[in-house]
Write a structure and sequence with these properties.
By secondary structure, the protein is an alpha/beta fold. The protein contains 10 helices and 10 strands. The strands form 2 sheets. The chain has an 8-stranded mixed beta sheet, sandwiched between helices. Strands 7-8 form a two-stranded parallel sheet. Strand 4, helix 4 and strand 5 form a beta-alpha-beta unit. Helix 5 crosses helix 10. The radius of gyration is 18 Å and the shape is globular. 52% of the residues are buried.
Length: 310
């Protein structure tokens, strides 16, 4: 695994991948997988940006098979519509990369379904998407679900009594909660896949500290952290480097189901993919079980086709 790069990606011809979020890490993940021969479905809420990303990948990889599909993770109806379209178009899926996210909106904002925005987009939207696509993944070949967490998950706590943070909203702790939820979801998905024989590996990854527009998009370029992101760009590793843990989790033969991968240097902020440090709270099975049950209730039971009723 030493100094693993995109050059180590095994050939992906005949494999298909859905990647959420067509910018930054999502773009670099899609580009690398397209170069390896995978069929790419880029999913995002902005058709113009999605088309631009797909065209850029076609320009870089003329042989690429890639399309853009609209998906708004802040709207469960959009998630269901996207999944229904894929079920109509295809019979299987090999890779799902739950990549898209939002970070630190300064004030509490609601998704279309009334969830706090960071929880709704980073976690609940991807929870629902994975559940809706699970039948396709079960038909895939050695299928993998890669869910992006963050080193911020180390400071996270799951507030089961007020998971929407309506009584305690603070941008960074809420972001940490959402990314801890993503990590716990990845572990629980692997446990359930093993228990029910789904044949789908669930693997988590984090990008370290990478040069994307995440801090520009929600806090804003003129916010203190947005200005720091602009002026101190050299402290952030390139997005292509930050995508390596996701690519490793999605393709490397040595990546293990139930694993968690991140960069190897400077406190996991940059470098090449290796097993990441797991926060102790991410291993609390009681909280993980309750979080799964709550997420099923909040998102309309998207795993109904695959998880037998309790």
């Amino acid at each position: 695994m030493s100094r693993w790069t995109s050059a180590n990606i095994p050939p992906q011809y005949g494999r298909s991948a859905v990647i959420t979020g067509p910018g930054g890490l999502g773009f670099e993940t899609a580009l690398a997988l397209a170069r390896a021969g995978a069929e790419i479905i880029l999913a995002g809420r902005n058709p113009a940006k999605g088309a631009e990303a797909a065209n850029a990948i076609r320009a870089a990889v003329p042989s690429a098979t890639i399309c853009f599909e609209r998906l708004d993770l802040a709207d469960l109806t959009s998630v269901t519509d996207f999944a229904d379209r894929l079920h109509e178009q295809r019979s299987s899926l090999d890779i799902l990369v739950n990549n898209a996210g939002v970070m630190r909106p300064p004030e509490w904002q609601a998704t279309a379904d009334g969830f706090e925005q960071q929880l709704g987009i980073n976690y609940l939207g991807h929870f629902a998407l994975t559940g809706r696509l699970m039948p396709l993944l079960m038909n895939g070949a050695r299928a993998r679900v890669v869910t992006l967490s963050s080193i911020a998950a180390r400071q996270g706590a799951i507030h089961l009594d007020d998971i929407n943070a309506q009584g305690w909203y603070d941008p960074m702790p809420v972001y940490c909660q959402s990314k801890l939820a993503c990590l716990m979801f990845s572990f629980e998905l692997e446990r359930l896949s093993m228990a029910h024989g789904w044949g789908v590996s669930s693997i988590a990854a984090h990008p370290g500290v990478s040069r994307t527009d995440l801090l520009h998009n929600a806090p804003g370029r003129r916010s203190a952290i947005g200005v720091a992101r602009s002026l101190l760009w050299f402290l952030f590793q390139p997005a292509a480097q930050g995508a390596l843990p996701s690519l490793f989790a999605a393709t490397a033969p040595q990546a293990k189901g139930g694993g968690y991968y991140g960069p190897d240097s400077l406190g996991e902020t940059r470098g090449h993919p290796v097993p990441a440090k797991i926060p102790p709270q991410a291993l609390d099975q009681t909280v993980a079980t309750r979080l799964w049950e709550m997420s099923q209730e909040l998102t309309g039971n998207p795993f109904a086709r695959t998880v037998p009723p309790a």
